[in-house]
Amino acid sequence: MDGVPGKAGWLDAYLDGLRTQRQLSPHTLDAYRRDLMALLDVSGDKPWTALTQADMRRYAAQLHSKDLDPRSIARKLSAWRGFYTWLADRTALAANPVDGVRAPKRGKPLPKALSVDDAVHLVSAAARTAAAGDEAAELCNRAMFELLYSSGLRVSELAGLDAVPVKGSLGWLEADNAEVIVTGKGNKQRRVPVGRAALDAIAAWLARRPAPTDGSSALFVSTRGTRISPRVVQLRLKAHGLKAGTPANVHPHMLRHSFASHVLQSSGDLRAVQDMLGHASITSTQVYTALDFQHLSKVYDSAHPRAKLK
Questions:
Q1: Please, how many CA atoms are within 13 Å of residue 140, restricted to the half-sphere of its CB?
Q2: What are the beta bridge partners of residue 171?
Q3: Which residue is catalytic, options 71, 106, 185, 231?
Q4: For the whole model, what pTM was predicted?
Q5: What does the H/E/C string look like for 186-211?
Q6: According to the model, what pLDDT value does residue 82 have?
Q7: If you ran DSSP here, which 8-state letter would residue 114 be given?
C-alpha cells in the first residue's frame, strides 16, 4: 500500500504525522494510539479500505456491550474518523466509514444515595455533637439533618418550614401528628411523616431556638436569628459530613435520595415514595428502583456462593 507495510504501518504513518505536523504531546499521542489499536484489534485482517459504516457501527456496539463509557466510545470514534480522513487523501477510499456513526447516548446518572449505615451514622453523629457541645447551632443542625433524612424534604422545603402555621406559610410542623406540611414544586402541598428521632431532635432544638429577628415564624433560624437559607444548610451539612467521616461529599439532596432509596428497599411501595417525595410523575420516582436493584445486586454478589464464577 504505497510503500507503507500493512494495516499497522498506516497507523504508524498517521501517528507520526500527528507528532511532527500537529506536534501533539506524548500523552495525547498515546491516547490516539490506544484508540486506533482498538480499531486494529476489532477489525482483524480486513483491509482499512474494505471497512464499511456497518462495520463501524458493529464495533461501536461491541465496545458498548463491554460496558465502555459512552464518552470513551465517542472519543474512539473521533480518533477513527480522523484517521480515515487522513487515509482518504492517500488511498482510493470511497467514503469515510466512520461518518454518521455515533456513540450510544449517555445514560442518565443515578442519584447518589448513602448506605443505610452511612446515613444513620451521619445523623447520629449530629446527635452526639449536639449533646457534647449543647449549643443552639448544633441542636439546629441535628434537627435539620434528622428531618432531611426522615422525610426526604428538598432543602428549599426544609428552609421554608415554620414552627407554627401563619398566614402565607409554605410549610410547617405538626408534631402532634408526626408530620410536616410542605409546599413543593408547582405549589403542590403534601403531608410527609416525621420519624421519632427527627421529632426528638426538633423538640430539643425548639427548647433552645432563639426568637426569629426577622419577624418570621421560621422553624430553623441562623445564628443571626433570621430564617436559615438553603445555602447555609448545604454548607453546614458538608462540614458535618467531613467531621463525621462520611465517605461521600454529602449534600441535602443526597439525604433525600437516601430517604427514597431506603424506604423503597424496605417497603417496595413505589407509589408511596412518589407521594412522599412530591413527584408529579412516577417516572421521576422510578429511578430509585435502579438504586434498589443495585443494592440487591451487591447483597447477592457478596452473599451468594455462586455469584462469582471462578
A1: 23
A2: 161
A3: 185
A4: 0.61
A5: HHCEEEEECCHHHHHHHHHHHHHCCC
A6: 94
A7: -
**What are the b/e assignments for 108-139, b being 16+ CB within 10 Å?**
eeebebbeeebbebbbebbbebbeeeeebebb
Give tens-digit pLDDT for 272-294.
888 888 888 877 777 776 655 55
**Greatest CA span in the chain, whole angstroms?**
87
Instruction: Answer whether residue 3 shows pLDDT above 50.
Output: no
CA distances 15 to 9, 22, 23, 98, 128, Å, are 10, 10, 10, 18, 60
Out of 209, 240, 256, 262, the active site residue is 256
Tell me if 219 sits within 8 A of 227, measured CB to CB. no
Q: Which of 98-102, 246-250, 291-295 has the highest mean pLDDT?
A: 98-102
Half-sphere CA count of 203, side-chain side, radius 13 A: 11
Nearest to 206 by CA among 194, 217, 195: 217
* Ranges of H-type helices in 89-178: 116-133, 136-151, 155-159
Q: Is 14 a catalytic residue?
A: no
300 annotated active-site: no
Q: Which of 159, 130, 158 is nearest to 142 (CA)?
A: 130
* SS3 state at 107: coil
Look up 256 and say whether it is catalytic. yes
Residue 68 grid cell: 465502555
